[in-house]
Amino acid sequence: MRSFNTHARNRLIVPFALITAGTLLLTACGSGTDDTATASARADAVPTADVVSAVKKDDAAAKLLPSGTTSLTLAVSVSGQPPGTSILDDGKTLAGQDVDFANAVARVLGIRLKTEQASFEAILPALDSGKYDLGVGNFGVTDERRRTIDFVTYINDGQGFATRSDSKLTKITDLTRLCGLNVATGAGTTFEATLEDNKHLCKKPYKVQTYNEQGAIWSSLQQGRSDVVMSTINGLRYAVAHQQGVKFLNEYHRLDVGFAFKKGTPLAKAFQAAVNDLIKNGTYARILKKWGTTGSATTASRISPPELK
């Protein structure tokens, strides 16, 4: 990973519309697009500070791993929107807050990670089949997910809303404020589940519009096909800071976020110890500062805690 320099800092202020437009083109036009150009556009807004390579192995944490564990297969969901995971301009390197935490934990434990890209909605089911050992993708810890998945938490994020700057919408404290509107969100997410579960609260239900690409979500908002976006608090704040014509409305529901594992995993205690080591040695704070998410800091990692209410 390249070292952080003045050029890299300047890249953080590239308009976010450029990123989302590139992502949408990739989705809509397939092979007819210039993949190199759009990949570069997405990478222009991705921080490149190296906050991981100096992390040292912690023998006490490593001893908690199952005997003989030297490598694990990691599934990563690529959202294309920082602080979520993006692909850098070389077309293969993944960068994002989740990736930094995964790589830092691997260094603490002294193991290698075989990283594979996977769609957000495919990762959790694939853990049970053994296809992957763990997954990251800003997975919120919910009571429903805890029935089949084990989590090791590392940040606190959650659900929020954003809309166009000229919208009359204000703070959404109750989903009935969405009645009659078109709401854009990610497919297979807790946001989709929350929205679908609460449609009955409206006499005139809101319409849930789901997309697999973040670029498509923001395009739908800017083009007037949707009225409001529901997504991660951190992702929304980042998008609003880098994109004209949109505003952050409010946080709606906080959730712990964690590494996801098959239920009953023997890896949980080792990963929990590794995250706590990162908090203690200062790497944790450096990762959050890099991605502008210091408001999501947690004081200690937990294993599959109850959903925040």
Explain the overall architecture.
With 309 residues, the protein is of the alpha/beta class. The protein is globular and about 55 Å long. Residues 1-44 have low confidence and may be disordered. It is 35% helix and 22% strand. The N and C termini lie far apart (38 Å). A five-stranded mixed sheet has the order 8-7-9-6-10, with helices on both faces. It has a three-stranded parallel sheet with strand order 4-1-5, sandwiched between helices. A two-stranded antiparallel ribbon has the order 2-3.
Q: What does this entry show, briefly?
A:
Helix content is 35%, strand content 22%.
Strand content: 15-25%
Helix content: 25-40%
Radius of gyration: 19 Å
The order of strands across the largest sheet is: 8-7-9-6-10
* Average predicted local confidence, pLDDT: 86
> Which structural class best describes the helix and strand composition?
alpha/beta
Low-confidence stretches: 1-44
Quantity of strands, as a count: 10
Which descriptors would you attach to this protein?
single chain; 309 residues; alpha/beta; 3-stranded parallel beta sheet
Topology:
Layout: H1 6-10, H2 16-29, H3 35-43, H4 59-62, E1 71-76, E2 86-87, E3 94-95, H5 97-109, E4 112-117, H6 120-129, E5 134-136, H7 143-146, E6 149-164, E7 182-186, H8 190-197, E8 207-211, H9 214-222, E9 228-232, H10 233-242, E10 246-262, H11 268-281, H12 283-291
Parallel strand pairs: 1-4, 1-5, 7-8, 7-9
Antiparallel strand pairs: 2-3, 6-9, 6-10
Helix pairs in contact: 2-3, 2-9, 5-11, 5-12
